[in-house]
Amino acid sequence: MSTTNKKRHERTRAQESSSAIERMYITMRHLFNRGFYKPMGVSGETLREALLLLRPEIYGSIGEEKAELEGLLYVIDRLPQGIEECTFINLTSDEGYANSHFKAIIPPKRRRNCYRIDDEQMNIEITRGRSEIYDILTHLTFLFVESHKISKRVLIDEEGSTVRDWQKLESAVLSSEKLSQKDREIAITHTANILGRTFNELTEAYSKFAIEGQPERLLHIVYWLGKLAIEETINNTKRTITFSPVLRERLGHHIHGEVWADTIKAELHKNGLLERPIHIISANMHSVMNSLFAKGILKASESKKDIFQTYEALSDSKNALLRNKVEKSALQNGMIYIKDTSGTNIDVQIFDTDKIDFTKTEFNYLKDSVEEKAVIFVMDYAFGEQAYETLDEFLKPIKVDGKKVHLDVRSISIMGKAGILEGGKGDIMIPSAHIFEGTADNYPFKNELSKSDLLDCGVEVFEGTMITVLGTSLQNKEILKFFKNSTWNVIGLEMEGAHYQKAIQAASKVRGSINEDVKVRYAYYASDNPLETGSTLASGGLGTSGVKPTYVITKKILEQIFNS
Predict the structure, then answer these.
(1) Which end of the chain, N or C, is less packed with Cβ atoms under 10 Å?
(2) Could you say which DSSP state residue 456 is in?
(3) Cβ–Cβ contacts within 10 Å for residue 314, how many?
(4) CA distances, 374 to each of 260, 292, 409 (Å)
(5) What is residue 535's predicted lDDT score, i.e. its pLDDT?
(6) Where are the alpha helices (DSSP H) in 214-306?
(7) Which of 516, 468, 518, 519 has its CA nearest to residue 494?
(8) What is the pLDDT of residue 487?
(9) How many helices (H) and strands (E) does the chain have?
(10) SS3 148
């Protein structure tokens, strides 16, 4: 086969994938406007077909007959516990369930409130904009496709007779007795057969699915997914996803973002910080606080140690006492913490540098050059399109006693994790532009951070374009290779960059809400390399490999702020 043919073929696969993503995007918006759909019915067909054509890396063997275990775990961690049992899934706005007897169920890997209304219905609260809807619908489509693989393997005829493996799994799941090791292994044998996986693969995955109070959760999930798919096939009782009228009315109106921004500005005003120079950082809730205050709480013997060891200790979930100590010190020295109540799920820390004793920090060498009375405003990570909503609202001027006050925003720094296309976990990416996936919308900008700033940090640093994707679970190798090898020169992918940049450009260049030459910094550390097999986002957390790049970037951002 000639290289030209090969090239054309590979390119076609990337183009197919790209148009599959576009179709999913348009279909999801259409279904949302329509108000309801049946994922395994005619209305959900386009979504299913597009997902199967795309075969994203994260969903592994979704296109094959055998069940996909890692993808299932990835999805289950991002959806509420018990979702596999529900025939009706209702996406709602914040409609007051928090004040009811319903107990909020929060998925381990996504901060969102979900409520189990009854045996058949799960309500999922959407307060973070459209990206959250795309995220959920994609995961649910995957779940339902997998459930039908199970029903295909266990149904013998149209009357609903099932294979012996299924009957054995059913009796294990419905048994009120605690399973012994022997019973569990028997059940795993039958389940492995149903899923087209080996006994070994299932045994390995078993503990990853188990949660407190539900050690046999994997069996439970497989059984309920299969059971509902069987009912869909035999009785035509299709699972339904609905979007509440209030959600459809509110979406896109920045309802939550506006409440969030107003709360913060009121707090700044109350503390006399509203008219001070402000530096915004979008990051996690620990790196800036620890960089400023961890050194001050260490005993003299410890402070001689490598500070990164302290940061590693602080990120270990076992060290709650040490973390509380740092937080206490921060709150006594000019930090204000605002726990989110608006539904955006974005907490905030405000640091009044005027109250920080720099001689006790990592930055004691800068004590004379720190810009007068600067305020550092740290916002937790936004989710996809929510980045535009929250930053856009925050950068708008505020009315105080009848007069309009413009915020004196001097710099905006965005730090986050992203998938990398060359290099590996823990490496750093410095973008020079963001491109929005599926369109050629591009946002070039002058990044105050450069590769040379981070060269001595002990990890690899890459510079180039970053792509802002519609969802992390919508990428496959062909698309990623196209991004990497084309003249777009893409080094990584993430979900918020273009949305933040859209808000910054609108406020500084078009609306005149903030200073036109506001300084902008972007840096990301790699959570994975999706081009390397087995290294998709599903491959788990960063562990301690994320600590160093996080703090290296944080330190550089703070140095530039204090030196300005």
Answers:
(1) N
(2) G
(3) 19
(4) 22, 14, 10
(5) 47
(6) 217-235, 245-250, 255-270, 287-297, 300-303
(7) 468
(8) 87
(9) 18, 18
(10) helix
Q: How far apart are CA 169 and CA 190, in angstroms?
A: 7
**How, if at all, do strands 36-37 and 240-243 pair?**
antiparallel
Structure confidence at residue 14 (pLDDT): 86
**Distance between CA atoms of 376 and 404, rounded to whole angstroms?**
22
CA distance 136 to 262: 28
The residue type at 341: T
- For residue 437, the model assigns a pLDDT of 87
Sheet of strand 121-125, all strands in order from the earlier edge strand to the far edge: 36-37, 240-243, 88-92, 121-125, 114-116, 104-105
Task: Say if CB 150 and CB 203 are below 8 A apart.
Answer: no
A 10 A CB-CB count for 440 gives 8
Query: What span, in angstroms and rounded, lies between the C-alpha atoms of 352 and 497?
Result: 27
CA distance 343 to 95: 11
Q: In whole angstroms, what is the distance from residue 133 CA to residue 90 CA?
A: 11
- Cβ neighbors of 416 (< 8 A, separation 6 or more) are 282, 283, 381, 494, 496, 524
Residues of the chain with pLDDT below 70 are 1-11, 300-304, 366-371, 533-544
Look at strands 335-338 and 121-125 and give their pairing.
Answer: unpaired
Q: For residue 412, what are the β-bridge partners?
A: 280, 520
CA 183, distance to chain mean position in Å, is 38
Whose tokens are 């970037």? That residue is: 553
Residue 207 phi/psi, 5-degree rounding, is -70, -25
Neighbouring-strand partners of residue 403? 400
Rounded to the nearest 5°, which phi and psi values hold at 33? -65, -35
Q: 431: Cβ–Cβ under 8 A, 6 or more apart, which residues?
A: 447, 463, 464, 465, 466, 491, 492, 497, 522, 524
Enter the tokens of residue 486.
């084309």
The residue behind tokens 């205050």 is 293
CA quadruple 124, 129, 133, 136: dihedral positive or negative?
negative
CA-to-CA distance for 121 and 115, rounded, in angstroms? Answer: 9
Whole-number pLDDT of residue 307: 84
Element (H, E) at 491: strand 490-494
Q: How many CB atoms lie within 10 A of CB 509?
A: 12
* pTM of the entire predicted model: 0.88
CB atoms within 10 A of CB 344: 28
The amino acid present at 84, given as its one-letter code, is E
Q: CB-based contacts of 184: which residues, under 8 Å, 6+ apart?
A: 216
Residue type, position 508, single letter: S
201 dihedral zone (left: phi>0; alpha: psi -120 to 50; beta):
alpha
Place of tokens 């369109």: 439
